Amino acid sequence: MKLIINIPHLKLQGGVSSHYKGLEPFWSVPKDYNVIGKRYGLPGIVFLPYDYLKFVLLCLFGGYTHVLLNPSLGKNAIKRDAVFLKIAKLFQKKVVVFFHGWSPDMVEKINKQPKAFLSAYNKADKFIVLAKSIKSDLVKWGISKPIELSTTKINEELLEDFKWQAKSNKTFQLLFLSRIETYKGIYEALKTYQILKVQYPNCSLTVAGDGSQLDDVKNYVKEHLKDVSFLGHVSKDKLKSAFKNSDLYLLPSYSEGMPTTVLEAMAFGLPIVSRPVGGLVDFFENDKMGYLVESLEPQDFADKIALIVNNEAKLNTIAQYNHNYAKQHFMASKVVKQLEEKIVNV
Fold it and tell me: How far apart are the first and last CA of the chain?
């Protein structure tokens, strides 16, 4: 077996790039990464003819037996990767399609007319997805090939020198770490904190990340809130510090595949308060790991966080459980072994 994996450029910020960069040291099967899409500050469409031609040559002369494609369910990505799939099957390669992002808007469109998607993608030999809900969509559209679940991962170096220790709740630090976008629930997070701050003045909030709503969010905080700090985009040491200095991770996101930040927060021993989105619902244990809140009402999030804020024993019980669970299930070295098994067994 020899595997070629289509990926975005590893220097790009984003889930798929980060995923395969973290897996890189742990592959045991012969494999090569094949970079496609945008790079060097230019859009992906500029490189598309070159990417297709290069892929044809790799299929012809590279000695590869298996291909792993990594699209998101977005309009451009599924069209682009349908061509890569067609080329790979033309050269009789085993093809696994690993869907990462999952757009509700595209789901609606395909629900109305699934034939084109089915015709293009049912040529694959296997599918890997991040949530049972995604598997259900594929089955509903008529996909008849095997569909298996996987997860995103935690980079091993992120936890280097980290040892979980019980915390005191004399002060209570909430963390929102994500793209600063409406669909990530940033405004719900701010309003949740606003409610909590009245009852628990020892609370503070850290907002980490960048995005189109950052300026508006800062203006909202200036007018309505206090004890909110902004870290901007964080990585490496700053990312570690953000997790280490926090007591609870809050992500009221509207939609997710498998949010890596939730897994990372768990590994650092943070209780999670989020929503039942994507792959979270497939493993999350309410009350043992924190809480998944069905609604988008800030009061509902505040009520769940209040169960932890002034209960030091509960805080530390959840924290230790999350730390151990994440280390057992989500470290990159373990995720890559599971992924290899799924690919080898096509």
Answer: 11
For tokens 């494609």, name the residue: 69
Rounded Cα distance between 204 and 225, Å, is 10
Burial of 74 (0-12, 13-18, 19+ CB in 10 A): middle
Report the side by side order of strands in the sheet with 66-69. 31-35, 3-7, 66-69, 94-98, 126-129, 147-149
Over the Cα atoms of the chain, what is R_g?
A: 21
| Contact present, 3 and 84 (Cβ < 8 Å) | no
Please give the residue range of the domain that contains residue 73: 3-153+331-344
DSSP H or E run through 138 = helix 132-140
175 vs 152: CA distance, rounded Å = 20
What's the half-sphere exposure (Cβ side, CA atoms, 13 Å) at 174? 32
Q: At 293, which CATH number? A: 3.40.50.2000
Cβ distance 19 to 152 under 8 Å? Answer: yes
Give the pLDDT confidence of 54-84 residue by residue, as tens digits. 999 999 999 999 999 999 999 999 999 999 9
pTM for the model:
0.90
Q: Tokens in use for 86? A: 């067609």
d(CA 220, CA 205): 14
How many domains, the chain?
2
